[in-house]
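User: I'll paste a sequence; please echo it back and then give the predicted structure.

Assistant: Echoing your sequence first, then the prediction.
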Amino acid sequence: MQLNNYKMKFSKTQFDRLGVAAEIATFAPHEGVREWHVMLHVEPRGELFEDQMERIYAAEDLLPGLPEFEGAHYVMKRYFVSDSTNQCPLMRNEADIAISMIQQQPLDGSKIAVWLYLVSEMEVSERDGMVVASHNGYNHLWKMAMHHNNGNSYTQTESVLIEYEDCLKRHGATLADNCIRTWFFVRDVDTQYSGMVKARLANFIEQGLTDKTHYIASTGIGALPADPRALVQLGAYAITGLKPRQQRYLYAPTHLNPTYEYGVTFERGTRVDFGDRRHVYISGTASINNKGEVVHVGNIVKQTERMWENVETLLREAETGYEDVMQIVVYLRDTADYAVVRDMFAERFPHIPTIIALAPVCRPAWLIEMECIAVKGANNPGYSNY
């Protein structure tokens, strides 16, 4: 599709020899930084994890050499694996890339899948504990896989947030002013989530984040870190170089209530404007109404439809739509719902790169949750281009 100064392209590449499928979303303006979100899926062949892992890695290594990825550099990789404790130690370390590995089993029958984010033009390096992608006066700060293994979920959350804030400080940034997006992965979310929520609230108050200021777009979801003693793992993205009002928050009050009304502290979504584009980060969103009530208890089809409606309302508030979405991650509580949800997403969003993973949502009555990222061309002369 061609809109104003940019072209969004959705494509699929099959690495037949490797048995790996790549779902690709490309944001390619006529000038400036190009962006790619890619989901890689590996065909199960009844082999060991190492074999699936090596096939995924081989596809990752081939991608930047494809013509449509000219000039691309990896910035972030998030691996969804089926047994983090045993599998993550086998995986490779890579410099200058923010890497997250977490047990949220892909529900297509494989042991591993990966979400990849690539950019052109930017200088990407690891500095002072962060992966930094620099361009046009912005530093995009990625920090993944933060965890501690002492204490309960409250103390571990407190520790990882302090670690992250110290790291931000070394880059001249703060949680309140610069953090755009967080992911909290919680072991046994039904029992450990409340400790994470309380620690996050206490920390945010110390950092000047309240219901009168703002919070941060976030997903808090069930997952297993590789360290069996780790109850919480944090990933985060921040930007330095933004002007006031360049970052705004999404509420969708017709469909959703403020999160603080039921004791949690995150924004439903965040919009970031640059000179040439708009980024929209939709937090983990489920089947909920504007009174904070779970809608369609026990019905996976109706919950999925209401979830889509909520996300669409948030996107519309950001003056974007599903046609601008570059990636979707879907979390399911019950593996038995996979076939139904897979078919629903394939019918409605056949082109958007998507991963569906096993990951209990923070309320037991929620059967499904999704998050997404949208990018849309814009003309904002008051801001530098991305």
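The longest strand covers residues 6-15. The chain is about 25% helix and 35% strand.
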